[in-house]
Amino acid sequence: MEKGSIYLDGSLIGFHENPGEVAEExxxxxxxxxxxxTLTVAxxxxxxxxxxxxxxxxxxLIIVEDGEPKLTEKHIEKIKNDEMEFQDxxxxxxxxxxxxxxxxxxxxxxxxEELTEDHTHLEIHPTLSLxxxxxxxxxxxxxxxxxxxxxxxxxxxxxxxxxxxxxxxTGTQGYYMFYPQKPMTGTRYDKxxxxxxxxxxxxxxxxxxxxxxxxxxxxxxxxxxSVERAMxxxxxxxxxxxxxxxxxxxxxxxxxxxxxxxxxxxxxxAYTHLGEDxxxxxxxxxKAGGVLIGKTSPPRFLEESSELAPMxxxxxxxxxxxxxxxxxxxxxVMATEDEDGNRLIKVRTRRTMPPLVGDKFAARSGQxxxxxxxxDEEDLPWSESGIQPDMIFNSHAIPSRMTVGHLLEAxxxxxxxxxxxxxxxxxxxxxxxxDLEKTLKEHGFKPTGKEVMYDGKTGKRIEAKIxxxxxxxxxxxxxxxKKIRARSTxxxxxLTRQPTEGRSRKGGLRIGVMExxxxxxxxxxxLLQERFMDESDESLQFVCTQCGSIxxxxxxxxEKYCEACGSNDVEREKMSYTFKLLLNExxxxxxxxxxxxxxxx
Length: 601
Prior knowledge:
By secondary structure, this protein is of the alpha+beta class. The protein contains 13 helices and 34 strands.
């Protein structure tokens, strides 16, 4: 009989005639507490994998033997009466931790009534097969799993209050929503995760309909009146800091309002908003690139001075300014010392960010959208009871994404608004669609959630009935005001002489290979040349007509010659500097490139 391999943390440690028995014996010892509870073992095709390394995701499951769970009512009573803790269940072999690899050998039942003699484990609760963010999504079992994962991922980017003492925190940057609300449709995990205490969104009245092509695809239309009433309004905070450093020979930096004698003086207007200590006063408006902390530094090199002719120290301007594209108000100023005893000042700026066209919003079901229009309130459709939607999103976003939970949330929140009680949408135990429809009907609404609406511009009744509900939307930190950029001229990289990358470095907008292919397909060769050379890294180089090498120019003697062959027959040619760089790199590899010149036809 062929022996099976035994692996420990991926390394082969031996062989055994019956690897299945080894795996079972290890499991039994783990349940008795003779082996670590985090150890896992998996048996595949005559191979046993034992894992003890860190970083594995493990989760608890109830052990099942002969179709009966080891967890009994006695255990539950003892836990309720604080006579037993959860870890006692692990020690007594009632519950064990499995990782993804050992789960392949397990047959897990979701509910106790589903148990058979073949099952090996039972879920403590069906929602424990999900993570905390997914468990917080309403009606998650009705939506496509990929959308649920996207919704859980986008929760991390939502605006809210990320920390209770956020008003005295000095993180580099932070996003806040002014009036976050608890979701009207939520799960029992909202309390466990803290979303009830620190919500990350607002409840929007939503109409599902196309709106004059402004909400095509994933775009959404906002009610301007709701935006003016501070719907989804937030703030962006950024902290800047400066330090008084000490240098050799007793020199040090100074926090002060720089005087005219200081090298690099910015002008009187640049310092008018600074206090006597050189720091901007709270609630002062600061423009992009404005001075926040006035500071001067000693000269880099100490100049010679004598007793007969003492020289005045020429200090240089070294103030802390806001970023070139970031304006705002001074929110908070903190003066302290670092661990070396140097004075340290931190200034936090605040910029109010109302929703703008181009900002990103997302629902918990993974339906994300960009604001395509902020429409005047009087032009939006209204219902028979006079309610206007805060947001309109396109009905075409639903079928292909299969987010039925999105629509159930709209009905559930509508029911919650009518009854004044939160709708329970806990995965696998949520209120049923029939219960929600029954409640809407009792309050005089259509059970389908559809309502008769009237066009705000014409006043005519819209022929189709419009689905209207309340959906919890999160405002994400992808703000168009932090992404928009443009430049005419600006800094270039030293090596390639091409425009720098990135908005913060005043970089250019790149045309990629796909954009290039579009221009090629249109035959726009002159536009290609302009984008890829004239406006990027155009350079004039001398080329030898005899050997095709890049020639030299001696500007002192006024001569042009080829170093390779010594010829003076040189032509001046226009080329991309990166092409010239490529030629140099080829030469460094021992390859001699030649440029063949010819007259234009």
